TrEMBL record:
This is NOX5 oxidase. GO terms for biological process: defense response; superoxide anion generation. It comes from Loxia leucoptera (White-winged crossbill). It comes from the Eukaryota. Residues 518-548 are annotated as: Disordered. PROSITE patterns: EF_HAND_1 (PS00018), EF_HAND_2 (PS50222), FAD_FR (PS51384). It is found in: Membrane. Residues 431-566 form the FAD-binding FR-type domain. It catalyses: NADPH + 2 O2 = 2 superoxide + NADP(+) + H(+). GO terms for molecular function: calcium ion binding; superoxide-generating NAD(P)H oxidase activity. The chain crosses the membrane at residues 350-375, 387-406, 573-596. Gene3D superfamilies: EF-hand (1.10.238.10), Nucleotide-binding domain of ferredoxin-NADP reductase (FNR) module (3.40.50.80), Translation factors (2.40.30.10).
Length: 713
């Protein structure tokens, strides 16, 4: 269309300008310069493109040769573009010039090997041979052992999708890859990578993400209801804060505008300082998730709400202090001396316990500023989590100072403060009562640590919940939240999958890596005697085995709930995870299959199985679609064993059943719309259809290249 033509013309202008920048005064570019400009991972395709564009065979490209070849591709029909594809594949032993006019099995193997490298994939040589044979058998109509161009054109008519891709502008084949922006719509909802956000999911009974996600999926009325609940809570909070501020100002308007503003801000601070504590009552909020109040309040946003309230408290505190200082200075001629006297000495009538309101107020303001600065993302996620952790413990002196500063604050703080203290005491008693150990540690690709932890007898949790983990051998006083990746029905152990992203998680990975290679240090530097006693390591049975039995002491705090608890009450759930964000879904999927197995019935004589239609109070699910988006092939290794087990279990319970469908996507792999991957993706499709198994993952579900097409999904 017109838009496509305009885009092609713009691209050609960009190519011409880029060529001038690269060629300079030479007016021609070499193969190496062409590779650099095209930004192709594997030199094979750069060499093939260069050879086809170099019409005079001089070994260099002129501007006229390059633009002329590109114009022919842009304006050509699907047959002409298909011929270009054929010439790329007709290599004849890496020759730079157009080949013999046919493509044999060895040429296919060479091309597919280049395709694999372009897509950052690795397959054994026997699988590569199977792929080339599958492609050859599908396209070699006369069984001559090679593919001619008429055979390729005739056989590809059976693949309309590929012909449709050939009709796309050839510019999309040859454009350098654009820089990958941060993908804001991806679900990275594990606490390993975003420890302060709750687990998100996309299902027909839940929202896709909870806060700043751009590509929000709202499939149901419940999702729209969640949006309304958020807006209502936000509106109620803002209105109540404004009302308290206005009432406080009105009650003291006779004493001047500065004091009226100070008292109004003070009234609002009573509410919001108490709200700061209420929003961090994790145990209480987890209990509320099982009540009807979970439908009225966006409980999954409590950390985000805590941050917003904290920002407002700081702003109100600055206004409150500024108004009081203005009132004290305006009443005197020598206002600097008056302010110094006001701040330096406690005196009756100044407010607070013993007239210490000015002093406690300034101390509060300094502590709040320090806490806000140390909780910024650049500190918290920039390798300085300890700074955030220890500075946030200032909440203890903050609350003590608030009780001394505000005469009525205790009335607002009584209930949330008591619950907070109760939760902390119970959590401390529960943590110290259990003698827990990490029983196994498995080091997975991309620096992921799979921990198998002894499960306490009284530990009950729901799929998708998370716990706080403390490992004294890593850091004695640090607690970090991680999603539980095992199912509640697994009685003896808990699983955690932790990716090394920050300082603590990297130390954890390196700690078990060191134990695996060398055993525990006899006297680790910086470790106390108590911490050294908390570790014990036993070597595995085989050399090179990355899974080891161990006995490393740890403590757990939790479990704490997430919105995923509501997933079992829907009929059709769509779960979307990206990268290590699959961890809560690992628990959910296992629990779903446990419950699905309990619901299935079978005849002992003929082994016919069916699903009971009786009302299941535990699970009303009838269909589950799981979408996992990973960056590369290594990331698939994290949970391939689990996914294969789930597929096998469904095949055993219901052969050919569609209760659970897996949809895997690999963003590093090029799709069928790219000439550098079209043959590979076609071969993978053909072999998967023949063997009923994916060559990349080994699962029955085909691993798709690129990202999901959400319109089709």
């Amino acid at each position: 269309g017109t838009m496509g033509t305009a885009a092609d013309a713009e691209w050609l202008r960009w190519v011409s300008k880029k060529f001038g920048n690269v060629a300079g005064k030479e007016k021609e570019i070499s193969l190496e310069e062409f590779k650099s400009a095209l930004q192709v991972k594997e030199s094979f395709f750069a060499e093939r493109f260069f050879a086809l564009f170099d019409s005079d065979g001089s070994g260099s490209l002129s501007r006229e040769e390059l633009l002329g070849s590109l114009r022919r591709l842009l304006r050509g029909n699907s047959t002409e573009k298909l011929r270009f594809l054929f010439q790329v594949y007709d290599v004849d032993g890496f020759s730079r010039f157009p080949g013999s006019g046919s493509i044999d099995a060895e040429e296919l193997r060479v091309v597919l090997r280049g395709c694999l490298r372009e897509s950052s994939l690795a397959l054994p040589e026997e699988r590569l041979g199977a792929l080339s044979q599958a492609l050859l058998q599908a396209l070699d109509r006369d069984h001559s052992g090679s593919i001619t161009f008429p055979e390729l054109r005739e056989q590809l008519e059976a693949f309309p999708e590929l012909l449709e891709n050939l009709s796309i502008s050839a510019a999309s084949w040859l454009k350098p890859p654009s820089p990958s922006p941060a993908e804001p719509w991806l679900c990275c909802f594990s606490r390993e990578s975003r420890q302060d956000q709750r687990a998100g999911m996309c299902c027909f009974s839940r929202e896709f993400r909870e806060d700043q996600r751009a590509g929000t999926c709202c499939f149901s009325r419940e999702s729209r209801g969640d949006q309304r609940a958020r807006l209502c809570c936000l509106g109620g909070w803002v209105a109540t804060t404004a009302l308290l501020l206005a009432l406080g100002a009105l009650w003291h308007r006779e004493r001047g505008p500065a004091l009226a503003l100070a008292r109004g801000c003070g009234q609002s601070l009573n509410l919001n300082c108490a709200l700061l504590a209420a929003l961090m009552l994790r145990r209480s909020l987890t209990g509320l998730r099982s009540t009807p109040l979970a439908e009225l309040f966006p409980l999954e946003l409590h950390v985000r709400g805590h941050e917003r309230v904290g920002h407002l408290v700081l702003a109100l505190g600055i206004a409150h202090a500024g108004a009081h200082l203005a009132q004290a200075g305006l009443a005197q001629r020598d206002w600097l001396v008056a302010l110094g006297e006001y701040v330096r000495r406690a005196r009756p009538g100044a407010g607070g316990v013993g007239g210490t309101a000015p002093q406690t107020g300034l101390a509060l303001l300094a502590l709040l500023l320090a806490m806000l600065a140390c909780s910024s993302p650049c500190v918290r996620r920039g390798g300085h989590f300890e700074v955030f952790y220890w500075s946030h413990l200032c909440y203890i002196p903050v609350w003590l100072l608030l009780l001394l500063h505000g005469p009525h604050f205790w009335k607002w703080f009584l209930i949330p403060g008591s619950l907070f203290v109760l939760e902390k005491v119970l959590g401390w008693v529960w943590r110290r009562a259990g003698d827990l150990h990490i029983l196994e540690a498995k080091l997975l690709p991309s620096k992921v640590t799979h921990l198998v932890i002894q499960r306490p007898k009284s530990f009950r949790f729901q799929p998708g919940d998370y716990v706080y983990l403390n490992v004294p051998a890593i850091a004695a006083y640090e607690w970090h939240p991680f999603s539980i990746s095992s199912a509640p029905e697994q009685p003896e152990t808990l699983w955690l999958h932790i990716r090394a992203r920050g300082q603590w998680t990297t130390k954890l990975y390196e700690y078990f890596q060191q134990l695996e290679l060398h055993g525990p240090e006899p006297n680790p530097p910086g470790k106390s005697r108590r911490e050294r006693r908390s570790q014990h390591w036993e070597q595995g049975t085989g050399p090179g085995d990355s899974q080891r039995s161990c006995s490393v002491k740890c403590f757990l705090d939790g479990p704490y709930g997430t919105p995923s608890r509501r997933i079992f009450t829907s009929e059709h759930a769509v779960l979307i995870g990206a990268g290590i964000g699959i961890t809560p879904f690992a628990s959910i999927l296992q629990s779903i299959m446990f419950r699905y197995r309990r619901r299935k019935q079978s005849c002992p004589s003929c082994h016919f199985s069916w699903s009971e239609e009786r009302r299941d109070e535990e699970m009303t699910l009838r269909k589950v679609d799981f979408i996992w988006i990973t960056r590369d092939q290594q990331h698939l290794q994290w949970f391939l064993g689990l996914l294969a087990k789930l597929e096998a279990e469904q095949a055993e319970l219901e052969p050919g059943g569609k209760f659970l469908e897996l949809h895997l996507y690999m963003t590093s792999a090029l799709g069928k719309g790219d000439v550098k991957a079209l043959g590979l993706q076609l071969a993978l499709d053909l072999l998967a259809a023949r063997e009923q198994r994916d060559s990349i993952s080994g699962l029955r579900s085909r691993t798709q290249p690129g990202r999901p097409d959400w319109d089709k999904v």
